């Protein structure tokens, strides 16, 4: 059925027509909300509120823009409202391991609410080609480094950069979506680009991001998994870049450099008596591992590691708690 017919039926209260109208857009809207909010849980909440708002206000949709643009406008403003409320952000950090840690090299950029995004949720995603003014490819715009960089921006700058440089909307369109002037959109975009590009350069994210899908990348990831399961510290360290970065949201700490990483893995992950099983997965377009720690005759979910690679070395490892693992289809025990 054609879109105008579905809009007419949905406006008259036909729920099935509304579902047909939005089902092709809901997944990409969730990814959009995740980019702005940095949390999958928050993105799911924002998506549901977007769809409820669209259902209630469909009668006001005058088709002055495309349905997709209208839905993006609602979703973006819903995300901005959530960011202004700010009540969703955790105010406490995760307890650190009860061991002697090396001295952190600094405060990490990753915010405490950051969550990984399962690649499986992107399978079959209908991702229309971005507008001609987009600066980022889809794979780059979902990477953990890029999502982290976005979280450094004030909310309005964050929304402007995603709408302009990821989705490719024109400045005038973004101004209308945000009820702003074209000049304020261009000003916000300039400041946002400077922050994001600077963070990506410093984090080793670089541009353009490359998806680790070569044979060499697969070998590197396999060697890392093997080193973790054998608790072979030296083999693991040999895979790391000299300026490797370790972080573990929600703890706002960063451990940077190969020698600090060696101390960290020796003190925490690979300390004496620990034994792991590793289950490969993918998050944010990057290799990831579900880590399972031996405990009372079983291997229990311990955490998720998201790995960044470049030039046949591991340049960053971001660790998340076991609570995110079910979203990746990973069981609680092996």
Can you describe this structure?
Helix content is 43%, strand content 16%. The protein is of the alpha+beta class. It has two domains: 1-86, Rna Polymerase Sigma Factor, Chain: A, CATH 1.10.1740.10; 93-124 and 133-143 and 209-334, Nuclear Transport Factor 2, Chain: A (Roll). It has a six-stranded mixed sheet with strand order 2-1-6-5-4-3, covered by helices on one side. A hairpin with a 2-residue loop joins strand 1 (240-248) and strand 2 (251-256). The longest helix is centred in the middle third of the chain and has 22 residues, at 182-203. It is globular.
List the helices and strands and how they pair.
Layout: H1 3-11, H2 15-22, H3 26-37, H4 40-57, H5 67-85, H6 144-151, H7 155-166, H8 171-177, H9 182-203, H10 215-229, H11 233-237, E1 240-248, E2 251-256, H12 258-267, E3 276-283, E4 286-295, E5 298-310, E6 313-321
SSE series: HHHHHHHHHHHEEHEEEE
Classify the helix fraction into a percent range.
Answer: 40-55%
Anisotropy-based shape: globular
Number of strands: 6
- Class of secondary structure makeup: alpha+beta
Strand ordering within the main sheet? 2-1-6-5-4-3
Rg from C-alpha positions? 21 Å
CATH topology category name of the largest domain: Nuclear Transport Factor 2, Chain: A
Helix segment count?
Answer: 12
CATH class of the largest domain: Alpha Beta
How many domain modules?
2
**Annotated CATH architecture of the largest domain:** Roll
Flag low-confidence runs: none
Question: What does the average pLDDT come to?
Answer: 89
Largest sheet: 6 strands, mixed
Strand content: 15-25%
First CA to last CA: what distance? 47 Å
Protein name: RNA polymerase subunit sigma-70
Family: Belongs to the sigma-70 factor family. ECF subfamily.
Subunit structure: Interacts transiently with the RNA polymerase catalytic core formed by RpoA, RpoB, RpoC and RpoZ (2 alpha, 1 beta, 1 beta' and 1 omega subunit) to form the RNA polymerase holoenzyme that can initiate transcription.
Pfam family, one: Sigma70_r2
